[in-house]
Amino acid sequence: MNDHLILRVVGKFLIPYVMLFGLYVQFHGDFGPGGGFQAGVIFASGFVIYTLLFGLRSTQQIVSEGFLRVISASGVLIYAGVGVASMLMGGEFLNYNVLAANPIAGQHIGIMVIEFGVGLTVASTMTLLLMMFAERGLPS
Amino acid sequence: MVLEHLIDISLLVFLAVISVALLRIKDLFAAVMIFGIYSLTSASLFMVLAAADVAFTEAAVGAGISTILMLATLSITGREEKTIERKFKLLPLLIVSITGAVLLYGIRDLPPFGDAGNPAQVHVAPRYIEQSPVETDVPNIVTSVLASYRGFDTLGEVVVIFTAGLGVALIIGRRRRLPSKKEASSHE
Questions:
Q1: C-alpha distance from A14 to closest chain B C-alpha (Å)
Q2: How many C-alpha atoms does A120 have within 13 Å on its Cβ side?
Q3: 8 A C-beta contact, residue A23 and residue A123
Q4: Domain hosting residue A10, numbered range
Q5: Is the pLDDT of residue B115 over 90?
Q6: Contact B172/A133, CB-based, under 8 Å?
Q7: Could you tell me if B152 lies within 8 Å of chain A, comparing CB atoms?
Q8: Looking at the 3D structure of chain A, how many domains does it have?
Q9: ipTM of the shown complex
Q10: What is the 8-class DSSP label of residue B83?
Q11: How many CB atoms lie within 10 A of CB B47?
Q12: Closest-CA residue in chain B for A73?
């Protein structure tokens, strides 16, 4: 899309705000609509816009597929790790009450951390899906 | 109230029109775009139903990411649908009509829409509404239910997303290394 000057300029302008909004949805999910899943998708759509405008090769220079795979798996591990941590601290699997001295504080920590894990997995998997499809479409 | 119904009805009519258009269109590129419009209209409908979280997801995933993925697929497969000759077949029509009739009959047993006495409203929902601010102190009850009360479900969903990515990676991720001539001949 080298000839779409207006799209490129507007896209460049738009991408930071899309990602900022993703982060807002991620960390504001306790108070407003949203959460890790929505935030992950919004964050990934920043990469999608970038890939559409500047091509797959430019995106690959920012994040490699291997890195995204690691992030994708680590999100799941963070989530499950919270469950294991709560078991080690004497509660049931994913019982956040035991994560801190105060059950409410434990709930806050637990929800924050697992939402972060969800966001990581969703954002990286969505970006990875796009990159793999786009790689296939390129002439070899 | 009247205005709300008007919005509901027009959005639902939009959905019906879009579905028919989607069925009739031959150009796959246009079909993908119409899919995106369908998702966006659904998102508006969820918004009218005050389900902001679902509307969010539908707009981002349905209208955004999946449209892009389908476009990426089209770039691999080509954008014209293969034409098949249309023949009238009685049996499929019969099956569809009977199933539709049964479903319409089943609608009579559904509880009235939005009624406070519906099973969905009297089971665990009151417990969440009353206790979630006390137990988790999270203002957004949707988040507290998804992340805390049903944390195990959500863990399953995350694993599903991860597995989906893994599956795609295994199928199309890396180009298969072409066997060199030596290996190919040794297999024969």
A1: 15
A2: 20
A3: no
A4: 5-137
A5: no
A6: yes
A7: yes
A8: 1
A9: 0.89
A10: P
A11: 18
A12: B162
